[in-house]
Amino acid sequence: MTDFYKTAFWKRLRAACLKRDRKCTTPGCTERAVVADHIVPRSKGGADTLENLRGLCIRHHNMRRHGNEPYLKGCNAKGQPADPNHWWN
User: Fold this and answer.
1) S-S: 17 plus which of 36, 74, 77, 82, CB 3.0-4.6 Å?
2) Any residues with CB less than 8 A from the CB of 22 and at least 6 apart, and which?
3) CA angle 28-29-35, nearest 5°?
């Protein structure tokens, strides 16, 4: 973790993200968002802006940290049910 995440700027940005995204933004997830996640990571040039942040629950944030985009079991990468007969499709 860099010192950036200890700054007042980041704390305000994180608070704004979690106020906007009260629930995890992973499609189909209803857990409370507790992590302000960079959509495009800072290490890849992602901006420190509200538009580049999304709220995630801890489970989906950990999936992302380990190299996987968050998705729910039984869903494809877009968050849609993998079963073509599912009522959402």
Assistant:
1) 36
2) 32, 33, 55
3) 140
- Output phi, psi for 37, to 5 deg: -105, 135
In whole angstroms, what separates CA 2 from the centre of its chain?
19
Three-state SS across the chain?
CCHHHHCHHHHHHHHHHHHHCCECCCCCCCCECCEEEECCCHHHCCCCCHHHEEEECHHHHHHHHCCCCCCCCCECCCCCECCCCCCCC
**Nearest one of 62, 69, 78, 84 to 27, comparing CA atoms:** 78
The region of weakest confidence among 3-17, 49-63, 72-86 is 72-86
CA gap 87, 63 in Å, rounded: 26
Query: What type of residue sits at position 78?
Result: K
Identity at 11, one-letter amino acid code: K
